[in-house]
Design goal:
Blueprint lengths: L13 H5 L9 E5 L2 E8 L7 E4 L5 E8 L2 H13 L1 H6 L4 E5 L3 E7 L2 E3 L1 H7 L7 H23 L2 H6 L11 E6 L5 E5 L2 E7 L4 H4 L14 H18 L15 H12 L2 H13 L4 H20 L10 H5 L7 H11 L3 H10 L3 H14 L7 H17 L1 H5 L6 H8 L5 H15 L5 H6 L4 H4 L6 H4 L3 H4 L9 H6 L4 H9 L3 H4 L3 H17 L7 H26 L7 E6 L9 E6 L7 E4 L4 E4 H10 L5 E3 L22 H5 L9 E3 L3 E3 L2 E3 L6 E6 L16 E10 L5 E6 L3 E4 L4 E4 L2 E5 L8 E6 L4 E6 L2 E2 L4 E2 L7 E7 L3 E6 L4 H4 L7 H22 L9 H12 L7 H18 L1
Antiparallel strand pairs: 1-2, 2-3, 3-4, 4-6, 5-6, 7-8, 8-10, 9-10, 11-12, 13-14, 13-15, 16-19, 17-18, 18-30, 19-29, 20-25, 20-30, 21-22, 21-29, 22-23, 23-24, 25-26, 26-27, 26-28
Helix pairs in contact: 5-8, 8-9, 8-11, 9-11, 11-13, 14-16, 15-18, 16-19, 25-27, 25-28, 27-28, 27-32, 28-29, 28-32, 28-33
Length: 878
């Protein structure tokens, strides 16, 4: 028989003590309460451990507690009082007196204590799957028991700390025919016993008062209720099939639920294990029946849930299979707004439980009778978003977009308004995905209603970008009250959208500003309007054009047929015939700084030092070339190398699953990730310098679905740009953040000849460079995960290269110049009677100087007024 363990030994048998490390050669008898037990085995551990058989050949463990006569009497009374409790947990015990000792005989097969369990779970002779499952199950029960012990009423009452139940009171038995197994080992199985009768328990100080029963009725319910949960978790039984519970009536069953099954410590432990190990099949097997049990407990009771259950306990209801049970837990949770927000914030797994709550919310339909649940849930989510910015960033993966799509068309007007306000909070400074998903419900037009004006002003600039019929940008601005609010809404439009309709935006600025100066009335916000208007004009006329030239790859995104003329062996001028095939840098030098740059970096340098002369570098012999960019360390590229470049416009792409139409892909599955890559690769070799691997491509996102889970990268670099978070990762580690991208966005990625990866966003180079390991074969790599995602892969006609800045007619520029002069004259006219108007004169003066360097603007009156104001301020300081 296998090694066995007993807690104590029979101190009176001296012969056995002397031979404690040897096998007993002959059986020995012991008599307890006129019953004879035959000692057959002895453990080889430091303690003497015995296995005995009675007259009916039943196997028992024998343990002896040396005690005085008075203590033995107290132990006997206590044992009798706890007999019912012992039987509830399936432990068969008898007791007696033997040579001044209290002796307990426990019917068992092979008992495994916690110490032996530590050996068992690491034993290599046991298959790993069985070890893992047993380790999981037993450790979980130990934790649950410890948590339950902390909450025992009697333990709190007498200040026993951890309580009467602790891991030390537990043992695990290996039995031949287990009725309640955790794991099967051939014909045997591991069975759990919560053993309340042992030496440490019986010798507690309070046992000196034998008339005080150590358990109250609530404690027994706690213990028994925990046993019910564990029983159902370990076996394939519903709670109605559990002995004793099935015959209870409704009121008794509810009492057990209230008293035992929603201990907050146990609930939090279960949520923690499910969150951490939701993909672990062993956890799923163990907790599947436990959650089914709690399904029954919650769905079977008709009590007022908020008054009975702890918030922590209700988190566990998010994992129930029964929909009505999930909904009851959801209702109970969101009926206490303040406490719920606090508990969400305190949960170590708030991402998981918030995601579960949002998923249940999106499927919750009883909004007519329980509208307060909707309001509290939305209020809670609003509070969480304000506290945790990551919730807004993870709107897609958390299921918020799906929630908005499902609920934004709700008929209840009050709830609909709350959901629209929630939509405004989520979509502000976010991608267009949420707005485009919501437009099908008619929300875009409703956002223009007066009751939403204050909240929705931040979204007005984005509405026309959603391509909603019959809603134009100029119509949107009619509903905004106040000129300053209208100007600020224009200023909030992203630059890559402004440059698409510059003339129209200039018309809007003029239509807002000109009526203010035509009638000489007081406009206290005129200084703010003027400053914002000048900034918008400068951005449209010059700043966006400069940014475009700086950020776009320009010639870097084209294949060149290089023609050059030598210039005394030094630098030479270069002309090029471009083909929209590839992306790579050439090298230029700054004659002033004597530094070399690739074309992209040279744009930065030239914009900073406008008087510096930039020249192309080209050496006749490749062997003489050591030219590289000072910033990106990219190498010079030779005509001979370029001629060997494979045209990758004909690359064939394939996806792991999903649907494909040439370069268009869409996702069909929610859970599986689509990997899109090419069947061929780009290979460029140059033996004289490092291998040159040059590549650039873009994806245009037709729809980001509900998840926005889109990743773009180059296979082999380990660098990916995640759309739903804006996170840029290298080998799954975050290295930088860019803008989040979603529906209607275009994102590109390129790799230079010095193995530097960069990204573009809506036609702009982000200018964040990431070195990677050298690779000789490169392929595009796109990953999609979620439903209704649709993208187009582009290998030519790039957004970064093809979106030229629209030419503004000269007459429009002349009109703008005249209007600016009128605005300045009005501003100066209002400076003297209303000093508040001049609050922004420093900023306005700075913008005017920048504008006057590009446009023939005359503003002498403002110059004089500005100088007078400066002299006046100096005199006041003196």
């Amino acid at each position: 028989m296998s090694r066995v363990t007993i807690l104590n030994y029979l101190e009176a048998i001296s012969e056995i003590k002397k031979n404690s490390y040897k096998q007993i050669s002959l059986p020995q008898n012991i008599y307890i309460n006129n019953h004879s037990y035959l000692l057959e085995k002895q453990s080889s551990t430091d303690e003497l451990l015995f296995l005995a058989k009675d007259d009916h050949d039943e196997e028992y463990f024998i343990e002896c507690i040396p005690a005085s006569l008075s203590d033995i009497s107290a132990y006997e009374r206590r044992f009798i009082e706890l007999t019912g409790l012992i039987q509830r947990f399936g432990v068969t015990k008898s007791y007696g007196v033997f040579q001044s000792s209290f002796v307990i005989a426990t019917k068992a097969d092979i008992r495994i204590t916690l110490d032996e369990f530590n050996f068992f779970k690491s034993c290599l002779e046991i298959p790993k799957a069985i070890r893992d499952q047993a380790k999981l199950a037993l450790e979980t029960i130990v934790k649950i028991t410890r948590e339950l012990g902390k909450n025992l009423f009697y333990a709190k009452k007498i200040g026993l700390g951890i309580g009467n139940i602790s891991p030390e009171t537990m043992c695990f038995e290996l039995v031949k025919n287990p009725q309640n197994p955790i794991v099967m080992l051939g014909e045997r199985g591991i069975e759990v016993k919560i053993d309340m009768i042992n030496k440490s328990f019986l010798t507690q100080e309070y046992l000196k008062f034998p008339n005080i029963f150590p358990y109250e009725y609530k404690d027994i319910l706690d213990l028994w209720g925990a046993g019910v949960c564990l029983y159902c978790a370990k076996d394939s039984l519903l709670i109605d099939e559990v002995p004793f519970f099935a015959i209870m009536d409704q009121s008794d069953r509810s009492n057990v639920i209230m008293e035992s099954n929603y201990q907050p410590g146990i609930s939090e432990l279960i949520v923690e294990m499910l969150c951490k190990n939701r993909h672990n099949p062993q956890y799923e097997k163990l907790f599947h029946n436990l959650t089914k049990t709690w399904d029954f407990l919650l769905s079977d009771t008709c009590l007022t849930l908020p008054d009975q259950f702890e918030v922590k306990a209700l988190f566990a209801s998010f994992y129930f299979e029964d929909k009505s049970a999930r909904n009851k837990g959801f209702e109970a949770l969101f009926s206490r707004e303040n406490e719920t927000v606090r508990m969400f914030n305190a949960s170590p797994h708030r991402v998981e439980v918030i995601s579960k709550a949002i998923k249940i919310f999106s499927n919750y339909e009883d909004h007519d009778s329980n509208h307060y649940i909707y309001n509290n849930a939305l209020s809670t989510l609003n509070g969480l978003i304000i506290t945790h910015s990551w919730i807004k960033q993870k709107a897609g993966s958390l299921g918020i977009y799906r929630l908005l799509k499902d609920k934004v068309g709700i008929s209840n007007g009050k709830i609909r308004k709350e959901i629209i306000n929630f939509l405004i909070l989520i979509c502000k400074e976010n991608t267009l995905t949420g707005l485009i998903l919501a437009k099908k419900k008619g929300v875009i037009r409703e956002l223009l209603y007066p009751q939403y004006l204050k909240e929705s002003n931040s979204l007005i600039p984005l509405l026309s970008l959603c391509e909603v019929k019959k809603i134009k940008l100029h119509f949107d601005f009619k509903v905004i009250e106040g000129e300053n609010n209208k100007i600020q809404a224009l200023a909030n439009i992203p630059i890559h959208f402004k440059r698409q309709r510059p003339e129209f935006l200039l018309d809007l600025v003029q239509s807002i500003m000109n009526p203010m100066v035509e009638v000489p009335t007081l406009h206290l916000d005129f200084h703010s309007c003027l400053q914002s208007s000048l900034e918008i004009i400068y951005e449209i006329l010059f700043k966006s054009k400069q940014d475009q030239e700086i950020n776009r790859s320009g010639e870097c995104c084209k294949l060149f047929n290089i023609q050059y003329q030598e210039n005394d062996g030094e630098c030479c001028k270069l002309s090029a015939t471009d083909y929209q095939y590839n992306s790579f840098p050439l090298i230029v030098t700054c004659s002033e700084c004597q530094k070399q740059f690739c074309l992209t970096c040279s744009r930065f340098h030239a914009s900073t030092y406008k008087n510096h002369i930039m020249k192309y570098i080209l050496y006749p012999q490749p062997s003489k070339s050591m030219c590289s960019c000072s910033n990106s360390h990219d190498h010079i590229i030779y005509p001979s190398v370029l001629c060997e470049l494979k045209e990758y416009t004909n690359l064939m792409l394939f996806a792991s699953h999903g649907t494909q139409n040439k370069y268009n892909f869409s996702s069909d599955d929610v859970s599986e990730e689509i990997n899109i890559t090419s069947t061929t690769e780009i290979i460029i070799y140059n033996d004289d310098i490092n291998p040159i691997t040059i590549f650039y491509y873009e994806i245009e996102i037709k729809s980001a679905g509900w998840s926005e889970d889109i990743k773009i990268g180059i296979d082999g670099t380990g660098i990916e740009y995640h759309g739903n978070t804006g996170n840029i990762l290298h080998n799954d580690k975050s290295i930088a953040y860019g803008p989040r991208f979603g529906t209607k966005d275009t994102v590109g990625i390129g790799i230079t000849s010095s193995y530097v990866v960069y990204f573009t966003y809506n036609g702009y180079n982000l200018h964040i460079y990431f070195p990677c390991d050298p690779i000789r074969e490169i392929r595009p790599l796109i990953k999609l995960k979620g439903e209704n995602i649709s993208i187009q892969v582009k290998f030519s006609n790039f957004s970064i290269d093809s979106r030229s800045y629209p030419v503004i007619p000269p007459n429009k520029i002349a009109s703008i110049i005249q209007d600016i002069e009128n605005w300045i004259n009005y501003y100066v006219y209002m400076l003297v009677p209303y000093p508040r108007i001049g609050a922004n004169k420093d900023q306005i003066y700075s913008i005017l100087r920048d504008l006057s360097s590009q446009l023939p603007i005359s503003f002498p009156s403002f110059n004089n007024s500005f100088r007078r104001s400066r002299r006046h301020e100096s005199c006041l300081l003196m």
